[in-house]
Here is the input.
Amino acid sequence: MASDRRDFVKTAVAGALTPLFVPRSAWGANDRIAYGLIGTGNRGGGLNKSFQKVGAQCAALCDVYQPYLAAAQKDSPAGVKTYVNSDELIAQPGLDCIVIATPDHQHLPMLFKALDAGKDVYLEKPLSLSLEQSARMISAVRKRKQVVQVGMQRRSMGFIRQAKKMIEDGAIGKISVVKAIWNWHFALPLDTSPLAGELDWNRFLGAASPRPLEPLRFRWWRGFCDYSGGNMTDQGTHLMDVVQWMTNSGPPHSAVCKGRITNAPGVEVPNVFTAVFEYPEFLATWTLDYRSTYDHDWSIRFQGEEATMVLDRKGLRLFKDAGLSKTPWAQKVSAEPVLDIPETDAPEAHQQNFLDCIRTRQEPNCPVEIAAAAVAGPHMANLSYKEERQVRYERIVQNS
Here is the structure.
């Protein structure tokens, strides 16, 4: 048995490691990439630190909310230029690329403006606010030669690339079910009190429906359909991308979804839901529960006939299948993994890949086509939830 286990693990991991980056020795001594950041809130502030950590120069910052802008300015070089109007930042001379970390409804117009200005773009996920937007964004990018990376960082994680190679080499056999899960007990920022600091509300709204300022809509914009696809596309684009990448799949054939808004008054999108996606050879479920810490954080479980693979924030674990049985109720099944690969990747790997591709002009790890396919299922699930019906990808594409 020990010999079988060793052989199984040896076969599973053989050849799984691949290089991810251009070595620093290949870069010029003064070859620093200058970026402008649009959207300096929680995610944008983190990206600002990450890009500087991997050697890029923050040359400009833009945000509609003054406290966010001031906080990012403290984390940036002295003399960094600041803007409220993103058009002015994009027009600033000397910028090599634009980093966009705005609410989802601003992704398309800001991407288009950055491309028109001839800039390479790092665009936060999810790519789009709809399937129709995804198609327009792909078309716009492919008419130009700029490098566009979408911020789905699992594409640059070494242990997930190992998982891909292992699955391709048959380590888990034929996959029947994939289960993607995200559990947080999340105290959503549902504060309706006045905002501290100056906000340009009309610039925040952009092309969204005009309305008087509502602090809740700004603090938790992800809870409203005018500005995002909610928790479904926020986390779902990450996990469903991995599902489709590992299985060499495009968007699902169909989606159904049920959800509920639990202890989150005033918002429009569910914070507890399960979606089921139909693929040609397997089923996938995507479950989010923002009311529980059980099985905390994200995980994806690929159930194959030879083994089950679990990916999560801790890394990769492989569980050998006990095999076909005529008496499964009496079967002895081990709960111990036969392989455990910890997650040791640098959190800045995805930003590093983008900078590498600016220099080499190669395709980044997450181009717009991949990002569009990843968010397609979550967009379909949102439609299913809202309209209480099964949504088929082919019909949407035909009617768009």
Q: What stands out?
A: Residues 15-29 have pLDDT under 50 and may be disordered.
